[in-house]
């Protein structure tokens, strides 16, 4: 199946991306950890992908790093975790930090991730403990340069947080709490996720 895409980044509407490869546009969902590090639209990008067959069709998920794709696939093996929640997990927690939380059995910290209740967090600890060691450590995110600011970065960030699993009032509250003049949508999302997780 499709394991990698290399093409032109047409649009970014977190968590969705549109990548044109040979005249064909591919819709790809990606965690914010990948979206933070993407180049500006119109530039070439290479993504590692996970191809999933769902009841209502097929879907592609994209990652800049193999560590993130491997962790995504491990998360999908946990009972009660689907692709949307797996993306939310990777958007809020770096792979090395997730490994640490799992090994520490920190259920309280895991439940701060949208979509993760106590029972799911407990299953993550049990079912992921033997798998996360092989994933490795995620490199720190770099700053994206040359990106034109959208007309309404706060609004874009609010919508993205809702797509990651936050309820509309909570998403709006987080954005209002952290947004500053001149922030891009990606900066606001990054700050909001950190605030939500108490880091």
TrEMBL record:
Short name of one Pfam family: HHH_5
Region annotation Domain I: where it falls in the sequence: 1-64
Keywords attached to this entry: Cytoplasm, DNA damage, DNA recombination, DNA repair, DNA-binding
Compartments it resides in: Cytoplasm
InterPro entries from the UniProt entry: DNA_helicase_Holl-junc_RuvA_I, Hlx-hairpin-Hlx_DNA-bd_motif, NA-bd_OB-fold, RuvA, RuvA_2-like, RuvA_C, RuvA_C_sf
Gene3D superfamilies: 5' to 3' exonuclease, C-terminal subdomain, DNA helicase RuvA subunit, C-terminal domain, Nucleic acid-binding proteins
Helix-hairpin-helix DNA-binding motif class domain ranges (all copies): 73-92, 108-127
SUPFAM superfamilies listed in its UniProt record: DNA helicase RuvA subunit, C-terminal domain (SSF46929), Nucleic acid-binding proteins (SSF50249), RuvA domain 2-like (SSF47781)
Region (Domain III): 144-199
Family recorded in the similarity comment: Belongs to the RuvA family.
Domain notes: Has three domains with a flexible linker between the domains II and III and assumes an 'L' shape. Domain III is highly mobile and contacts RuvB.
Summary of subunit composition and partner proteins: Homotetramer. Forms an RuvA(8)-RuvB(12)-Holliday junction (HJ) complex. HJ DNA is sandwiched between 2 RuvA tetramers; dsDNA enters through RuvA and exits via RuvB. An RuvB hexamer assembles on each DNA strand where it exits the tetramer. Each RuvB hexamer is contacted by two RuvA subunits (via domain III) on 2 adjacent RuvB subunits; this complex drives branch migration. In the full resolvosome a probable DNA-RuvA(4)-RuvB(12)-RuvC(2) complex forms which resolves the HJ.
The protein's name: Holliday junction branch migration complex subunit RuvA
Organism the protein comes from: Luteibacter sahnii
